[in-house]
Every structure is written in C-alpha cells, then in structure tokens.
C-alpha cells in the first residue's frame, strides 16, 4: 500500500477537535431524586465522573470520529500496488541480441546465468501475474523483428514461447522492432514493455518513433560490465622472408600476425594465445590500458590453414574473446612439378590456370645422391611427381611437406607389364569426368599393389591403371603408367584429364572466406554440378555450444545458391560441398563473429529518455523504480532487476463509499435518540 499525499495528514487534527467538542457539550439528564437529602450527593457524583464519562457509550461520537478519519485518509490519496492489473493490450519486446549472452560476473558462470536467462525469468513472472483479461503480444528483437504471439491469453503458450527464446548474434533490428511495436499499439488502449540490457548502438537511442501508449524499459543485468575484446586479427605472409632451407622442418618464420585489443574496463594484465591448426604456436602477455586499444604483433609464425587467437582471462562476455584468421589466398592454384622434364605435362598444367613451379635436381654430393633443393617460400596446393620419388623427398622437411599436400604420382620405378589390346574401363570419378578413353593410355602398366585407401578409376584388361583416394586426410592420385609409354599426352582428352585431376586434388583444400557477422549474406563461388553443401561447426563458440550442421540454401530449381547466409552462431565453420557424382568439391572456411557493436559495455543512457519522450506520456510506475525524466519533466518508470510490474490501484472510491454508509448509520443513531 502507498500514500499519494502525506501533506493531507494535517487534516487529522480534526479528530481531537471533535472529542473536545464532546467534552464541552452541556448534557442535561433527567434524574429522579426521592429525597432532597440525596440531591447534593447526586450532584457531587455527576461532577466527579465528568468530563471523561461524557465520552462513554457515545456511539454517535465513534461514528463521527471514524467518518472523519476516513475523510482524512481519502485526502491522503491512498492506493495499493496491484500486479498484472492491466486489462488491455500489452506488447512485450524481448531483446535477444548478442549482448544478452553476457554473464553477470565471470566466465565460470554458465549460460543459465546469462542476461537472456534472467530476462526469461522476468517475462515468465509477468505472464503468470498478468490480469485475466490482458492480451499479450510477444515480439522478439533480433536480426529482424519477429512477432511470436499476438494478443495471446493462454499463459502456458506464452511460457513455452518465452522458454524457447534464443540469442540472435547478427545485427539487431532495434529501430524496426520499435517501429513494429508502435504500429501494433496505435489507436488503442495499451502499453509497451521493453526487456533489454540497454547495450544498444549509439544510433539506436534516437528512435524518432512516435508511441501513442506508455513505454516502460525493464532493465536486465548489471549497469556496468568490464570487457576486453579482440577487434581485429589477421595473418599474412611476411615480405622479404628468406625461403626455407634444407633441414627446415616446417618453414617457420614466413608469416606475420597482428591483433587489436580493446579494453573497456580498468587497466588489466591480459594474455593472447595463438593456435595454428589446433596447436599452440605463440603467446603474448601485455598490459591493456583502461579505455584504450592495444596492438599486439606476432612474428615468425609457421604456416597453418586456420589460425585461432584466444584472449585470456575470460570475462563476462565471451563472444569477443576469440577470433580466427586464414592466410591470404592467391587466385591461381600453386602446383609444384617434380620431374626430369615433360613439356606436354607442364603445358597442360599451365592450361588449368595453375602457377607451375618446376623442381629439378641440380647438384649431387660425392656419393652421387641428389641434394635437396631449397623449399620455396610459398606453400604448394598440389604436388605432381613424375617418375621415381627423389631420395631427398623421403625424409626431413620435404617428406613432411609431401605428407601434408595433395599429390599426383605418375609412373614409378617398378617393373612394367606389357599390355596387348585390351578393353579400357573408366569408373565414375571427378578425375575421369567428361572422358571416354577407349584405348589404353600406355603400352605398359606398373605392377604395384593397390593400397587400402585407393579406389580404381581406370582399368585396362581388368588391371588397375589409375587409382585415387584419401591418405592422411589428403587427396592422392596415382597413375600406374609412364606418360612416355603411350600417346595419351597427344590426345585431346589429356588437357581435360589434367584439369580434372588438379581440380579434384584441390578439393582437399579449403579457401578461407574471411570473417563475417552472423547471418550476413555471402557470395560463394559454387560449381554448377554442386549437389549439396553443409555448414559444419569446427571450432570456437559454435562447437562448444553444440551447434548442429546447417544445410546450404538452395534455389527453387534445386541448385545451390551462390548467395548464402553465414551461420547464425559465432565460431569457425566449414562449408563442405559435394558434387552430383557424390565426390567432394573444394570447400570453404568461414570465421563467424557476433555483431561487434554488441560488445560495448556502457548502456545507452539516452535510450529511456528518447523512448518516453517519443511516447508523449510517462511510463507506468512500479515499486523500486528509479525515476528518470523526459523532456516534459514527467516521471518515467524503469524497473530494477528482479522487480515485477506493479500498478497503482486507488482506494478513494471505496473510502467515499464507506463514509456514505457511516453517515447513514449516524443519522439512524441520531434519530433513535442515541446521541446523548
């Protein structure tokens, strides 16, 4: 219960005035006296019992005092707090932007302690205590405004929908959602409740939207939260680095990384851990000044397909504490050709658009063994080996490089088997696509066992002439014949065969698409014969949160669309593409990040003022609310964490009704002579 005007309590002074009037009232009582001798005793007894006996058994006095007290209470404007008493249309806006995933204290908390969980609890509390006739519309504020329920009265349906709310990590549609809420309440009795942490972009506070109903903001979470974020991170090949030399195990020192860290909290000691393909390759400890950005550099980084940067210690907003980067990808495929010389093969490789680097043996030591040539600085996409594998490639840095790179081996040193005219069969495979080889590719086949990973793709007379497969996660193609043993290089099918081979070998490599905000639209080059594509979470928050694979978007024709939305959960994602023949095609890496604007820690102080000013009237009050003022000087309510919405239910009409009843009773008492 509350009091609207404590100043009216001064009117309570009328109560002792009424009592005083009764004390001074002259009362004459008819008293029979049987003897004049007793008259004096009666007078003395009456004087001894006054003045307080005048107040005994005076029903009219008590009725008048009660009526006066009620009138004073009415002047004080009493009211009671009434929960969920609204009977009209209520619009609840649930902010599910990325900042709602912030934790109240530190990273050891779970998502059940996040602002989103707190908001669900508050929404469910409101729904449980809402009035029976109240119609509730629930709007989800995410990357687009979404009306989940319209004028719903079923509390169970509302609670189920609220429990199903999840965070939206894309760019939140603040202005669009508020505009929708204003349109839904235009021209009717209603009100709007906005459940948010007020961590809105600066421009979101200037809504410019005219509300015709009261607007109230329900604040979620603490007012301030310190946060450190990785704003930028990238890795590139360093200019001027010397190529790797003999004995260099992994071509270290050829890459350079840089990160920009923003610190919104007090000065802190932070740490950056840099991983390359899942292995820790560098760490940096540094001091982040309060409210400033710090640039951290990483030199002499080894080559890796994917780099991950992690910021420690974890803070209350984990979504900006890690970032992914990929090496710059050149347009042309980099092919290393290890051969004693084959002009036809080299030209055919160049026709594919590849950048061909021929590696030959130039020196020999005293024992006649070829010395290992220097490993070029740029790592190859495909290695083609024609003939016998050189001795230097069987160990050391070259052996490690060969194990990590897709290979195409042509010929070898094993004894060959002469072929007579025999039937040539081509299996369905990306390497043999568009080919119809009716004659053997060579007059002699190498008699070598087929490894477990190999799948025959070309047979001659029942004998395997070529096989392909995946070894140690890398595509590998083997031709069991020498090109000089036949006329395959002179046939028009040969350039097509080489192009197919290079394209298939590249399918084991994935191009980095860079960084994108969750849900943003991407342009992805998709082959015409691509049949299916699936986004799979590989690392980061997406993998930790148990995100499910996401099928790629298709056109109405059934073909894959070149316009693909980025996955909706931050983290490292991989797009695996499969052709119509069931074989894998080149895929893509993508680093998905939450909207960086959501990592700001300072709430938008102008948000409440702008919304209430746009509404043209104050928001309804509640207990524990903090008063803020709009442009007209009216008080606007802002709920504290844990508050339930309360409304003032005035008691004036009930008090007036009771006073009228008392007056009727008082008149009846007076008529019956009970006033004395």
UniProtKB/TrEMBL annotation:
<dbReference type="InterPro" id="IPR024163">
    <property type="entry name" value="Aerotolerance_reg_N"/>
</dbReference>
<keyword id="KW-0812">Transmembrane</keyword>
<keyword id="KW-0472">Membrane</keyword>
<feature type="transmembrane region" description="Helical">
    <location>
        <begin position="651"/>
        <end position="670"/>
    </location>
</feature>
<dbReference type="Pfam" id="PF13519">
    <property type="entry name" value="VWA_2"/>
</dbReference>
<protein>
    <submittedName>
        <fullName>VWA domain-containing protein</fullName>
    </submittedName>
</protein>
<feature type="domain" description="VWFA">
    <location>
        <begin position="90"/>
        <end position="197"/>
    </location>
</feature>
<feature type="region of interest" description="Disordered">
    <location>
        <begin position="616"/>
        <end position="642"/>
    </location>
</feature>
<dbReference type="Pfam" id="PF07584">
    <property type="entry name" value="BatA"/>
</dbReference>
<dbReference type="InterPro" id="IPR002035">
    <property type="entry name" value="VWF_A"/>
</dbReference>
<feature type="transmembrane region" description="Helical">
    <location>
        <begin position="6"/>
        <end position="24"/>
    </location>
</feature>
<feature type="transmembrane region" description="Helical">
    <location>
        <begin position="59"/>
        <end position="81"/>
    </location>
</feature>
<feature type="domain" description="Aerotolerance regulator N-terminal">
    <location>
        <begin position="8"/>
        <end position="78"/>
    </location>
</feature>
<keyword id="KW-1133">Transmembrane helix</keyword>
């Amino acid at each position: 219960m509350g009091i609207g005007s404590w100043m009216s309590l001064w009117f309570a002074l009328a109560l002792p005035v009424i009592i005083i009037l009764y004390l001074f009232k002259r009362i004459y009582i008819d008293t029979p006296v049987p003897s004049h001798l007793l008259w004096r005793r009666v007078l003395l007894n009456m004087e001894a019992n006054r003045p307080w006996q005048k107040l005994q058994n005076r029903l009219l006095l008590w009725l008048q005092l009660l009526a006066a007290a009620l009138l004073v209470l009415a002047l004080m404007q009493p009211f009671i707090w009434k929960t969920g008493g609204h009977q009209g249309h209520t619009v609840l806006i649930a902010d599910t932007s990325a900042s709602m995933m912030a934790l109240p204290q530190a990273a050891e908390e779970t998502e059940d302690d996040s602002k989103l969980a707190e908001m669900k609890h508050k929404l469910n509390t409101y729904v449980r205590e809402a009035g029976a006739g109240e119609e509730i519309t629930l709007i989800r504020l995410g990357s687009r405004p979404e009306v989940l329920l319209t004028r719903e009265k079923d509390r169970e349906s509302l609670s189920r929908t609220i429990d199903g709310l999840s965070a939206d990590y894309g760019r939140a549609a603040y202005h669009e959602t508020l505009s929708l809420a204003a349109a839904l309440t235009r021209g009717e009795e209603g009100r709007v409740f906005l459940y948010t942490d007020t961590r809105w972009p600066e421009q979101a506070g200037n809504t410019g939207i005219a509300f015709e109903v009261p607007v109230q903001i329900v604040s979620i979470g603490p007012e301030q939260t310190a946060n450190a974020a990785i704003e930028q991170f990238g890795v590139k090949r360093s200019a001027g680095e010397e190529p790797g030399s003999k004995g260099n195990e992994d071509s270290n020192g050829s890459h350079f990384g840089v990160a920009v860290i923003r610190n919104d909290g007090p000065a802190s000691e932070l740490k950056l851990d840099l991983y390359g393909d899942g292995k820790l390759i560098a760490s940096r400890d540094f001091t982040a000044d309060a409210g400033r950005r710090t640039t951290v550099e990483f030199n002499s980084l080894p080559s890796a397909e994917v780099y991950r940067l992690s910021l420690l210690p974890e803070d209350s907003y984990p979504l900006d504490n890690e970032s992914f980067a990929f090496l710059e990808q050149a347009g042309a495929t980099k092919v290393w050709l290890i051969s004693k010389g084959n002009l036809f093969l080299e030209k055919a490789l160049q026709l594919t658009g590849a950048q061909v680097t021929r590696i030959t043996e130039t020196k020999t030591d005293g024992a006649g063994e070829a010395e290992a040539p220097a490993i070029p600085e740029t790592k190859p996409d495909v290695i083609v080996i024609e003939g016998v594998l050189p001795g230097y490639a069987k160990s050391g840095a070259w052996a490690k490089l060969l194990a990590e790179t897709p290979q195409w081996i042509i010929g070898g040193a094993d004894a060959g088997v002469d072929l007579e005219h025999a039937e040539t069969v081509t299996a369905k495979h990306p390497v043999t696509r568009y080919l119809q080889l009716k004659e053997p590719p060579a007059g002699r086949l190498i008699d070598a066992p087929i490894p477990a990973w190999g799948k025959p793709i070309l047979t001659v007379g029942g004998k395997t002439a070529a096989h392909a497969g995946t070894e140690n996660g890398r595509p590998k193609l083997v031709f069991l014949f020498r090109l000089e043993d036949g006329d395959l290089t002179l046939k028009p099918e040969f350039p097509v065969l080489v192009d197919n081979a290079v394209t298939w070998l590249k399918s084991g490599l994935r191009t980095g698409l860079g960084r994108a905000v969750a849900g943003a639209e991407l342009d992805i080059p998709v082959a015409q014969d691509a049949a299916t594509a699936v986004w799979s979470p590989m690392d980061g928050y997406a993998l930790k949160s148990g995100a499910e694979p996401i099928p790629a978007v298709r056109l109405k024709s059934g073909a894959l669309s070149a316009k693909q939305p980025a996955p909706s959960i931050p983290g490292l994602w991989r797009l695996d593409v499969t052709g119509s023949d069931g074989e894998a095609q080149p895929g893509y890496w993508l680093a998905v990040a939450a909207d960086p604007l959501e990592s700001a820690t300072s709430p938008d102080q102008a948000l409440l003022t702008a919304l209430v000013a746009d509404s043209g009237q104050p928001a309804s009050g509640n207990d524990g609310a903090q008063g803020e003022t709009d442009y007209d000087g009216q008080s606007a309510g802002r709920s504290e964490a844990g508050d339930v919405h309360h409304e003032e239910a005035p008691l004036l009409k009930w008090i007036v009704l009771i006073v009228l009843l008392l007056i009727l009773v008082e008149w009846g008492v007076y008529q019956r002579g009970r006033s004395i």
